[in-house]
Design brief:
By secondary structure, the protein is mainly alpha-helical. Helices cover 77% and strands 0% of the residues. Helix 1 (3-30) runs antiparallel to helix 2. The longest helix has 30 residues, at 223-252.
């Protein structure tokens, strides 16, 4: 990808964030019913993360590799954290809240539904933009189908996503007492490190909604394989975190 195309991709992601920011502000100002408001805010937040990550994935080959991609991962994760406060954007995070008793099962189900709705809308949105053929990489992405993100055995891929989800959710709980502006940077650093460690093997996604948005074609071709790796493994990691955090650690400390 040439430099001009990289800047176009970056402008597209920034424009998407501004669009979502406007939609969230309108929702917060004019939507007073609690559940529809929560649903829409979660849809918009997940839409932003999925849309930007779909575009960011196309910048993985920008030289020098992987420095540019990792730097952009960190920067945009910080921006997401600063602009999407109050939203979970990850079904595993919502599951964690349900298991901790922070929200009801009904509320959790509504949020997870919103997250997958945002993921699907983000994929449709990005495909509409890519179909315009503004830059070459968009046309290539549109025609590639399943990009086979699993570059290892399914068992290893399952273990990687399980491990990364467990580490991520445990760290989120550990960071709850840290000041929000510092916490955003620490979480972004953690995500960047996990992407560096496992991105070449599974994509290091540990977010079922994001995985579906990025690799819907792969889910269509090999539904059970991808469901086990990208849905069941992170969810199991979240359950393990709930057991360790809520049952085991209190006994030790």
């Amino acid at each position: 990808m040439v430099l001009d195309e990289t800047w176009i991709s970056l402008l597209l992601m920034v424009g998407t964030m501004m669009l979502v920011g406007g939609c969230r502000k309108l929702t917060q100002r004019h939507m007073y019913t609690r559940r529809p408001r929560m649903f829409l805010l979660e849809v918009f937040a997940t839409f932003q993360i999925c849309a930007c990550t779909n575009e960011l994935r196309l910048l993985a080959s920008v030289q020098p590799k992987p420095h540019v991609a990792l730097t952009l991962t960190y920067i945009f994760t910080v921006l997401h954290g600063l602009t999407l406060t109050g939203s979970t954007c990850n079904p595993c995070g919502t599951l964690q809240q349900i298991l901790d008793g922070g929200i009801s099962v009904k509320q959790g189900g509504l949020k997870i539904g919103a997250q997958f709705a945002g993921a699907v809308l983000a994929r449709i949105y990005m495909h509409r933009i890519w179909s315009m053929g503004i830059i070459n990489v968009h046309s290539e992405a549109l025609s590639e189908g399943c990009c086979n993100p699993i570059q290892t055995t399914e068992t290893q891929a399952f273990c990687i996503e399980l491990l990364f989800s467990t580490v991520f959710q445990l760290t989120i709980l550990q960071f709850e007492s840290i000041k929000p502006r510092l916490r955003v940077h620490l979480i972004a650093l953690l995500i960047t490190m996990l992407v560096y460690g496992g991105g070449n093997l599974t994509g290091a996604i540990f977010n079922p909604a994001l995985a579906f948005s990025l690799h819907a074609s792969c889910f269509h071709d090999k539904f059970w394989d991808y469901s086990i790796v990208y849905w069941m493994a992170p969810s199991l990691g979240t359950v393990l975190v709930a057991i360790v955090w809520g049952e085991i650690l209190p006994l030790i400390f």
